[in-house]
Automatic annotation (TrEMBL):
Key word Thylakoid present: no
Protein name from the UniProt record: Heavy metal-binding domain-containing protein
Stretches of the chain forming a coiled coil according to its record: 73-100
Alphabetical list of SUPFAM superfamilies matching this protein: YbjQ-like (SSF117782)
Amino acid sequence: MDAGAYRIPDSSEAVCSSCVKLLEQEIDPKIQATDSDEELVYIKSQLIEQYGRLNGPSCQAYLERYIASQEPVIKKIRKKREEENEKKSLEERNSQITEEDINNYMSTSGFNFEGYVIKKYCRIVNGYVVLETGFLSEFAASFNDMFGEESNAFANKMQIAQEAAMKKMIRQSILSGGNAVIGVNFSYVKFSSNMIGVAANGTSVMIEQV
């Protein structure tokens, strides 16, 4: 026994190197991979019984205390894993949304659809697009000629920005579980002399045909 190879946190008890190797290579990965407290309790009991039987009661007692000391760490690892899985799932669902899904998505500036009933209000959704350098100066230059080419060019760019913001808002609605958006409106924010933000806003809802 190579005593003193490892000490349990908040304890003066020394542990042999074979237990340290066991912890690093087998026990830590197993307990960190648990997805629930119930699973952790089960794995914990199995490990303590299995390795305690092989290495004696002193190791069994140590392993029990060690695993208990790791529970806060395990919960942090589990939470991070859940967040990563949720992010991955969201990215996967987002990649599956097609242009056809967006184009056929129901939306209105009003607060209901004729022939449909709202079954659930999911969440407020938004889509943002920023128009960069030169757009406001184009607008100022074309203000005196509202029907000129420059004015039309600016209007077209604003229309494209609105459509892009709308698509982003619809994507957010789909990901939130809704199948329609109500109360759609656009807002505009001036960030600087050459930047303007276009936002599409609405409420994602789940509707059902009457």
